[in-house]
Give the backbone structure.
Amino acid sequence: MILWGEIREFPLVTVLQFLSKERRTGIIEVQDFEDLGWVYMSRGGIDAVSMPQWDEMFGAKLVANGALTEAQVKECWMELSDSEHHPVLATLLEAAKQLERRALVEIVNRHVADAVMQLMYWNGGTFRFGVPSEQVYFPVVPSLSVETLLLDAYRRADEGERPWREKISREQELCLTCTIDCTGQIKSRYLKPGLCLWRSMPAVLKDPIYRGLQKLRLSSEGDEGPDDLLFI
């Protein structure tokens, strides 16, 4: 089973609910303009959520709780490259097994709950769910169900908790990757959800000479408006 879609159309919360209800096993790859990560699922439950920045935070939590030293965390990062099939998260958990299991499960629960909370705020990018040829093994998995994790995320959002970092919107992403000069007036008219009509417009219509001629024509016709842009 392979699912793929735009997060703008199918929020990750909806995707998680569907896969949990269907008791699916596999990996959700999530990607947007800023981040790339993976959600590992087994029989409808979340085993782990991995993303470079979040994995670093998880390593710091293990250090803070005395499960690992900073040197051991660095060794785990050097041992394996970060990828969906060999996540450093699994290596960190394997190295931290000396910690009492109940305490380790509690750390994992908090980490995954925080990660799901962040995923709830994703407003763009894509997701892809697939079944790998070999399932990734995690020594310790959360004891919380997907439903419990989502309810906790909704509660925290209702209480005013915000994401660690605001996500860039699709419209902002379009502007950040654009090399064409424009103005606020152009953006207000031609920047649509997920699409920039100004970028797609033929080059002749964006030429300063053409726009100047249009302005002269409008002035000669007695149009007192300052707007020299075309409507689409």
